Amino acid sequence: MPLLVQKYGGTSVDGPARIRAVAERVAAAHRAGNPTVVVVSAMGQTTDELQSLARQVSARPHPRELDMLLTAGERVAMALLAMALHDLGVEAISFTGSQSGILTDGAHSAARIVAVKPERILAELERGRVVIVAGFQGVNPETKEITTLGRGGSDTTAVALAASLGTGRCEIYTDVGGVCTADPRMVPGARVLPRLSYRLCSTLAHLGGRVLHARCVDLAAANGVPLTVRSSFDEEPGTSIGGEEMERARVQAVTHRDQVSIAIAEGTAGGRGEARGIIEAVARAFPELELIAHEQATDAHGAIVWIGTRSDAEALRRGFRDLRGPGGEWKLQVDDGAAFVSVVGLGLGAQETVRAEQALERAGVPLVALRTTPTALIFRVPGERCAAAVQALHAAFLE
């Protein structure tokens, strides 16, 4: 049978009972004849707790040491799952990211996988063992330093292993039944999508979908790795992701990002304070901030816009003078509490835009800004009206 990669998120391994339940599921897959690799996240809120602990000790934790600390969460989970499998009579062995051959660049807290050398994994699979891998981490082959992959790191680990091992399947287990038409916490009637193309799933992820991270989906698409997103709490089939769908106007889902901070730098270039240098410096210092706009006028006046968490945007505001360097005249403004609500589908155009705007108007949701693409209509709305906007758009297109 083809090799199977399974990934279990933090809620799926949150405590001894959940780890034993995951072990039962893994054991069943192994006994069915599937050579099995399992990727695990840290238990529950362990990563958040470790980050909080670091900031209680240090106002600005050193990036290398923070990575060393955060990788401990996944190591705990992988060892405990291996123990649970041993008690079920299943031979298993746990590996860190570096032991698994996951090689990354040197960017602490937001490293990118550059190669996977899975020789140890393959050797253990040949011995008939289940291999358990700590997600979210790797090693830089030049410096030998441990790195972490940032948001969605364990999902990315699973897909990278699936691609390198030539597997036929990669299953992502979480606490929801699959990719839904909207966030079920906002729209109780939201339903699980049985199938989704890579393109639309990537769009959903980039625009706020929390089930899969965009890096994971894009990596799967690039390597042709079929994905399944399922709940670890039941036996429902979940969402199958892969291939493409027919090009036709069809809304698939509504997604959102709330509590977003917007950082806008406006000014005139000069010396080292030119826009390209500013963009590069911010990307190095704050890799999680997303550059969404850069406009340059003929008189050298420009505007640069990033979005991200409040903490990153505030840190950028405090450090912007040093980052931008001497020369030019730049000012940075931060707007907290913004929200973006998006309608995602194929072949979206003027008719869908009008329909969406009418739905927001009927719901009394002010429209701050609009951006359209063939696969998404992206509305900026007041943060306090985010839930109302999601509900109105879901009702207009998907009910």
Structural overview:
By secondary structure, this protein is of the alpha/beta class. The protein folds into 3 domains: 242 residues, Carbamate kinase (3-Layer(aba) Sandwich); 67 residues, Alpha-Beta Plaits (2-Layer Sandwich), CATH 3.30.70.260; 75 residues, BMC (bacterial microcompartment) domain (Alpha-Beta Plaits), CATH 3.30.70. It is built from 11 helices and 18 strands. The strands form 4 sheets. Strands 3-6-2-1-9-11-12-10 form an 8-stranded mixed sheet, with helices on both faces. A 6-stranded antiparallel sheet has the order 14-15-13-16-18-17. Strands 4-5 form a two-stranded antiparallel sheet. A hairpin with a 2-residue loop joins strand 17 and strand 18. It is globular. The model has no long low-confidence stretch (mean pLDDT 91).
- Total strand segments: 18
How many domains? The number is: 3
CATH level 4 superfamily of the largest domain? Acetylglutamate kinase-like
Could you tell me the mean pLDDT?
91
Strand order of the largest sheet: 3-6-2-1-9-11-12-10
Stretches where pLDDT is under 50 for at least 5 consecutive residues are none
Shape: globular
Cα end-to-end separation: 40 Å
Assembly type: single chain
Structural class: alpha/beta
Please name the CATH topology of the largest domain.
Answer: Carbamate kinase
